Structure formats: structure tokens, C-alpha cells
Automatic annotation (TrEMBL), chain A:
Taxonomic path: Bacteria, Bacillati, Bacillota, Bacilli, Bacillales
Top-level lineage group: Bacteria
Stretches assigned to the Spore germination protein N-terminal domain: 27-199
Membrane topology: Lipid-anchor
Main location: membrane
Subcellular location: Membrane
PANTHER family linked: SPORE GERMINATION PROTEIN B3 (PTHR35789:SF1)
Keywords assigned by UniProt, alphabetized: Germination, Lipoprotein, Membrane, Palmitate, Signal
Domain called Spore germination GerAC-like C-terminal: residue spans: 230-392
Protein name: Spore germination protein B3
TrEMBL record, chain B:
Protein name as annotated: Uncharacterized protein
Topology of the protein relative to the lipid bilayer: Multi-pass membrane protein
Keyword Membrane belongs to the record: yes
Major localisation: membrane
PANTHER family: SPORE GERMINATION PROTEIN A2
Highest taxon, organism lineage: Bacteria
Localization of this protein: Membrane
Native source species: Paenibacillus auburnensis
Keywords: Germination, Membrane, Transmembrane, Transmembrane helix, Transport
Length: 403, 366
């Protein structure tokens, strides 16, 4: 009996000890041996041997939230070179004191040079590696090395990569010329037959001289500001050009990613009127009985509010308001048209017309997918836009009506 | 292992977890492209027909496992080798699933951990539970079904909230007609995971209710088919058919798309949990089937054989293939070459023999 009790006791002790061997097995890396990468910049190096110059923006954890900070930079930039992305990562370890952990990369910036050469080779590792994640945002550095974007101090977040993410989020919610593009969106975009992805551009405005130190924002006007710029249009995996202005907005509309955007029209009676489009729903349909001559229909319905009316218009009359909304409709139609024209100019169906066609007439799509560019270049399309001004906000007429 | 009887609810949850098993995380039925969800449903219907054949055998011999009535029906000389083959089949299936599970774990999270250690930890937990008995396994399944379902509901909710589900990625339906769907059914889906229900012929004698039991198991199959189909549809609508087709574990990137205002993110560890739970039940059920077969055939006590069989399964899983690619390729071919023999041909022969026997031995009027 006593023996039995002893056995039970020993077993219980063994049970308590066993979990100790289960702590992460062979793969455990202690937290103080990890360095979290917040952003990655990918540049085109010289020659084949250093094709990828990959810079990692690494968070210095003590500086972000530690008690005894040294007043050093909150992030550091390490650069590795190699023929492939993975080699470059391993190469960077010569400088890093800790293991770079890629689980929290929020931003990937590709330099314009590399983007023009083609990005499909470097995307594979982002999919395959189990540490990286698909929700990282992809950017193209407009006209400058990508590493500069990752080495610019920012005001609102100690970590520049986070700042960039927040900037994109704010502008896509308010201004409408950009939208979130994640890794898998880009991969699906490259696979669009006859098309490509659309990727947000980013650049720094101002002098680069003190951009990478705290001096950058010691003055009220920062020396260099990280800015989200136009959209980069791709054909397959190569950058073809930048989508600007109305065309960019039309592109975002056609992707149905718009949240809010301002519309400014100049009224025939003089003065500008500004609207805020706070809701828009886009549907792309296609009549594709004859796959060689499809007819696309873009249907848009929008809700608009008047934000600025420096004018003597009689906003009490419904007729005036309806007339104003027709201006908005015209503006939207022009933007969509612009977007389609730009896409044709770049010879790339990044708007997803081909996809719509595939859904509508999969057999017909198979026949035309090989030469889809030609069909896309001169297919017919109709735009059916509708906009309604729900209200005039806090005033009806402007004070200019009763001077 | 005595006269244990297992309740209907527990059998139901065991069926659900066994069917979900590894199938929930892998790219099931992707031969059919974006219509994979359909081939799973059709596969389930085919599986249910097969299962009803097994139920016929069970109802005729409610107290015997499969290995016992093969010998009764085919005679000892022909029946014994067949029974031994089935035991080997179960051990092999357990080994294959163990390899699936441990490699996927290694791919997903534990890159540097030796495969052998992962396999060993998993098979030892199975062995421990089976040492405690079959009823412990089924009770465990009750607990884990709740966990798996909770994880499922939670992940689905988060995916909807983060707005990553784009149902239009499932269109066009049946792009190339029904052909590829049926091809996928024939090559994979009726066998994996639904044909594997053959091992329940070893467990069904423990059912507490001969009449309702098979219906409950069939309901479990149907529900897990719906869950599997919905999961594949979810994967495709989040990632697109191409990425799913190229991912060995598509549920992982799907779940990793969850990001709610950059605060709730990287919940892919849930998938790893589901994977471990699924593999555990899959391996354990095959393991149990093999054990019941051995103890019945060789008249050995059930518990004594637990550790030898553990070792056999462990080494089968390790020696099965050098690489995962080889393993999957081999598995894919087994699904339509070898398994139909065990899961259709032999049971059909047994059904015919049973039918003839009961026809001649039935008391006739007059």
C-alpha cells in the first residue's frame, strides 16, 4: 500500500516536470534574443551578385517602452545584400546582434528601379516563409531608393513603418486616392491575365540631410516628410507608370475601395463648390456573348454632401440641388473614363475587366485571354453614374445670398 | 477491453473530429479548382453510401468488429489474412496521418525541431489516451469538438469583421463543367476523408444503441462535410483559388489575414491548435482500430499491445518517405489505387456473402 502511494507521488512529480521539456522545443528564441522588424525596404543593387539590397527597419524595444532609455534612435536600419531575398536576410545578420523576426513586418517598400525590372521573383519568399505575413502593406518608393523611406524619422509614431501605415489609412479614408494593398493582393494582381497589381507609391518630401535623426523634427516644419503618393500601375510584375489625379481616383473607384473623397466643381455661375462623397458603390458588369467584343457597364451610385458653397445659389430649391448632383455625376464619369484611358495607355488591365469577363463568360474568356490586351484596348464601355445630395449640412443658403 | 459501451453523443463528436482531422487544414479537393467545396459535398454523399454498406455488415453482426466477421464469413483460412491486412492498413493510415501532422507542424511553426520528436510527442499522447481506454478517447473528443467549433466560430467572425471575405472569388462556378469536380471526387474526396470511415467498423461494436448509432455517425459525417466544404469555400473566398491550390495548409494564410484595426492579428496559432487536435483524433482512431483488431485476432490483452503498436506507427511514419512532397504524392496515388480495395471491394464481397447466407438461413414460411 505504501509502495503504491510512493509510486503515485513520483508519477505526480514526473507530470509536473514534463511540461518543462515542452517549451517550444528546438525553435525557442527568447524574447531578449529577438529583434522585431517593422519595415523592409528592397532596393536593386549593382549586378547579379548583389541583386537585392534589403534593409530592415528594426525596433529598438528598450527605446520604445523601456524605463531607462538612452535617447538613441527608436529604430535602426540594417542592410543585407544577396542574389535572393533570403540570402540578403541571412547576410544582414552580420550586423544584427539579435535574430531578426519577420512576424511583425508592417510595410514592404520596393524601389522604383526594382519595380520597373520586375518584382515577381522577390514575392515568392513573402508567401513561402511562414514567419512573414500576408497582411503587410506593399509600397513603391517613387523615384528614390527604398531604404531612404525606411530611414526617415517621423513625428507621430516612433516607428516610421507604423507611421506610414497610419498615413495610408488616413488618406485612403479621407482623400480616396490610395487604398490598402497587401501582399496577397499584389500576388493575385500579378496573376491577372493582361493586367497587374496597383501599388501605392511613397516618397519623402524635403531635404534628406537630417531626415534620419531626431533633428528631422526639432523644427516645427520637419526637414523631410514621409508622404504617400500616386498609385503605381503594373503590367504583369513590371511597373509601367504612375497613375495621377483623376485617373488615380477613378482607379480606386473601380476597385470599389473608396471610403470618402472630396469633389470640387467650378460652377458656371462662378465660384467653386466642394462636395464630400461619403458613400459610393461600384458594380462592374459585362455583356460578353461575343467574347471578342464585350460591352462593359460600370454602375456607380454615390451619396454626397455639400461641404463648401461660396456662391449665391439658391440651395432651398430642390432643382438646384439636383442640378448640382448632375455636376457630381459628370465629375465621377470623367474620373472613371480617365482611369480606363490611363489603363489603356499603360496597356494593362489592372482594373479587373478581364476578371469580370471571366466570371460572366468563362468559356469565352479562355478564347480571348491570350490577346486580352487588344480587346481591352478598344472594348466598349458604358458608365451609369448616379449621385444624390442627401442634405446641405448645417446651412441651407450661403450667407452670400443675403449680404 | 471489456464490455464498454459508448454513448451516441460521444460517438457523434468522435466522428466529427475524425472527419475534420487533417482535412480541415489541408487544401482538400483542389483538383476541382474553385469548386473544391462542391467536390467535398459530392465526396461525402459517396462516402455515406459506402458507410451504409458498413452499417449493413454491422447490423448483421452487432457484437463483432470487422476483423471478427471477415473470419466468420470467409472462413478462418481466408479470413485471417484479410483481417491482418486490415490491421496493417490501420497502422499504416495512422502512420501516414502522423507524418502529415508532424510535417505540417514543422512547416508552420517548428522549423528546427526534429520530425521524430514531434511525431513521438504526438503518438505518445495518443498511446496514453488509448491506454486509458476507448471511452476516454470518446469523452476527450466531446471536449475538443467544443474547442474546435469555438475556434471556428471565432475565426469566422473575425474574418467577417476584418472584411477579407470576397465571395466573388468563388465565381464562376463550374467553369469547366462538372468534369474536374468529379475527377477530384474520384481521385480524392470520396476516400479522403469519408472512405476512411472503414475504421469505424472496428469501433461500432461499442455503440450503446444498435439502431440509432449508425444514423448518429452518418449525421456526424454530413455535418463535418458541411464544415469542410464551408472551410474550403472560406479559404478560396479569402485567398483566391490559386493561392489555396499552392498552399499545403491554406487555412493558415486565411486565418493570418485576420487583422482588426491592427490590434487583433496573427491568430494563426488557432490553426496550429486545430491541426494538432485533428491529427490527434485521426491517429488515435486508426490506432484504436488496429488495437481492437490485434486484441481480437490474436486474443491478446488490449493494453499490452499499446506500446508495440505505438512504435510500429511511429516508425511507419518516419520511414514512409524522405520528403513531404514524396509523402503527399504517394498518398495521392494510394487514395485511388490501394484504398478502394480495402474500403469498397472487400466490404462489398462481405456484404454479398452476408446477404446470401442470411437468405439461405432465414426461416422460411411453410
Amino acid at each position: 500500500m505504501k509502495m503504491r502511494r510512493l509510486c503515485t507521488f513520483l508519477l505526480a512529480v514526473l507530470q509536473l516536470l514534463l511540461p518543462l521539456v515542452l517549451t517550444g522545443c528546438w525553435d525557442s528564441v527568447e524574447l531578449n534574443r529577438r529583434a522585431i522588424v517593422s519595415g523592409v525596404a528592397i532596393d536593386r543593387g549593382e549586378g547579379e551578385k548583389e541583386k537585392y539590397v534589403v534593409s530592415f527597419q528594426v525596433i529598438v524595444a528598450e527605446e520604445i517602452s523601456g524605463k531607462n532609455t538612452r535617447g538613441i534612435s527608436p529604430v535602426v536600419l540594417y542592410t543585407g545584400k544577396g542574389r535572393t531575398m533570403f540570402e540578403a536576410l541571412a547576410n544582414a545578420s552580420r550586423q544584427t546582434a539579435r535574430f531578426l523576426s519577420l512576424g511583425h513586418v508592417r510595410v514592404l517598400v520596393i524601389s522604383e528601379k526594382l519595380a520597373r525590372e520586375g518584382i515577381k521573383d522577390m514575392l515568392d519568399v513573402l508567401e513561402r516563409e511562414s514567419d512573414t505575413r500576408l497582411t503587410s502593406l506593399i509600397f513603391v518608393a517613387k523615384g528614390q531608393p527604398a531604404s531612404e523611406l525606411m530611414s526617415t524619422m517621423t513625428v507621430f509614431s516612433k516607428i516610421p513603418a507604423n507611421d506610414l501605415v497610419e498615413k495610408l489609412e488616413t488618406t485612403s479614408k479621407q482623400f480616396g486616392y490610395n487604398f490598402r494593398m497587401e501582399v496577397d493582393d499584389v500576388i493575385r494582381g500579378i496573376q491577372l491575365r493582361g493586367g497587374g497589381p496597383v501599388i501605392n507609391g511613397v516618397f519623402t518630401d524635403g531635404s534628406r540631410e537630417k531626415a534620419d535623426s531626431n533633428d528631422n523634427f526639432k523644427t516645427i516644419v520637419p526637414h523631410a516628410i514621409l508622404k504617400v503618393s500616386e498609385l503605381a500601375a503594373f503590367k504583369d510584375d513590371k511597373l509601367k507608370g504612375w497613375i495621377k489625379g483623376d485617373a488615380a481616383l477613378g482607379t480606386v473607384l473601380l476597385h470599389n475601395k473608396i471610403k470618402e473623397y472630396p469633389v470640387v466643381i467650378s460652377h458656371p455661375q462662378g465660384g467653386y463648390i466642394a462636395f464630400n462623397v461619403y458613400q459610393s458603390q461600384v458594380r462592374l458588369t459585362v455583356a460578353a456573348k461575343d467574347p471578342e467584343h464585350p460591352v462593359f457597364t460600370v454602375k456607380i451610385s454615390q451619396q454626397v454632401s455639400i461641404k463648401e458653397n461660396a456662391n449665391e445659389l439658391n440651395l432651398i430649391s430642390p432643382a438646384t440641388v439636383v442640378d448640382l448632383s448632375s455636376h457630381v455625376i459628370k465629375d465621377t464619369t470623367r474620373k472613371i473614363k480617365d482611369a480606363i484611358d490611363t489603363a489603356r495607355k499603360y496597356n494593362s488591365d489592372y482594373l479587373g475587366f478581364g476578371e469580370a469577363m471571366e466570371r460572366e463568360n468563362p468559356q469565352g474568356w479562355k478564347k480571348v485571354m491570350k490577346h486580352w490586351e487588344d480587346i481591352f484596348a478598344d472594348c466598349e464601355y458604358k458608365i451609369e453614374a448616379d449621385a444624390v445630395i442627401r442634405h446641405t449640412d448645417m446651412r441651407s443658403n450661403s450667407f452670400q445670398v443675403n449680404p | 477491453m471489456g464490455k464498454v459501451k459508448i454513448g451516441l453523443l460521444q460517438f457523434f463528436t468522435l466522428t466529427v473530429l475524425f472527419e475534420l482531422g487533417t482535412a480541415l487544414v489541408v487544401n482538400l479537393g483542389m483538383n476541382a479548382g474553385r469548386d473544391a467545396w462542391m467536390s467535398i459535398l459530392i465526396g461525402c454523399l459517396a462516402g455515406l453510401v459506402m458507410f451504409w454498406g458498413y452499417v449493413y455488415l454491422y447490423r448483421k453482426h452487432p457484437d463483432m468488429p470487422f476483423t471478427a466477421y471477415t473470419r466468420k464469413l470467409l472462413g478462418t483460412t481466408a479470413g485471417t489474412p484479410v483481417a491482418v491486412m486490415y490491421i496493417v492498413l490501420y497502422m499504416n493510415l495512422a502512420g501516414r496521418d502522423l507524418r502529415d501532422g508532424s510535417t505540417m507542424l514543422a512547416m508552420a511553426t517548428m522549423h528546427n525541431t526534429p520530425l521524430f520528436i514531434l511525431s513521438m510527442l504526438m503518438i505518445l499522447s495518443s498511446a496514453y489516451v488509448l491506454h486509458k481506454g476507448l471511452e476516454v478517447l470518446t469523452r476527450t473528443s466531446l471536449m475538443f469538438t467544443i474547442i474546435v467549433l469555438l475556434i471556428g466560430v471565432f475565426s469566422l467572425l473575425l474574418l467577417i469583421l476584418s472584411g477579407s471575405i470576397k465571395l466573388f472569388r468563388l465565381l464562376p462556378v463550374l467553369e469547366n463543367g462538372i468534369g474536374p469536380v468529379m475527377d477530384s471526387v474520384v481521385h480524392q474526396n470520396y476516400m479522403f476523408p469519408f472512405g476512411e470511415m472503414i475504421c469505424f467498423t472496428m469501433l461500432m461494436p461499442y455503440l450503446s444503441d444498435v439502431k440509432k448509432g449508425p444514423w448518429v455517425i452518418a449525421a456526424g459525417m454530413l455535418i463535418s462535410a458541411l464544415l469542410l466544404s464551408a472551410t474550403m469555400a472560406l479559404n478560396i473566398s479569402v485567398l483566391g483559388a490559386d493561392i489555396v491550390e499552392r498552399s499545403p495548409l491554406p487555412l493558415m494564410p486565411t486565418i493570418s489575414k485576420i487583422s482588426i484595426s491592427d490590434f487583433i492579428q496573427r491568430v494563426d496559432i488557432f490553426v496550429v491548435m486545430v491541426l494538432i487536435i485533428g491529427v490527434f483524433f485521426k491517429v488515435s482512431v486508426f490506432f484504436a482500430a488496429a488495437l481492437i483488431g490485434i486484441s481480437e485476432l490474436f486474443n491478446l490483452p488490449y493494453r499490452r499491445m499499446v506500446y508495440p503498436v505505438t512504435l510500429m506507427i511511429l516508425f511507419t511514419s518516419m520511414l514512409d518517405a524522405r520528403s513531404f512532397t514524396e509523402h503527399l504524392n504517394e498518398g495521392g496515388r494510394l487514395l485511388y489505387t490501394v484504398y478502394p480495395l480495402f474500403m469498397i471491394v472487400i466490404p462489398v464481397i462481405l456484404i454479398i456473402v452476408t446477404a446470401i447466407r442470411s437468405y439461405f438461413s432465414a426461416p422460411r414460411p411453410g
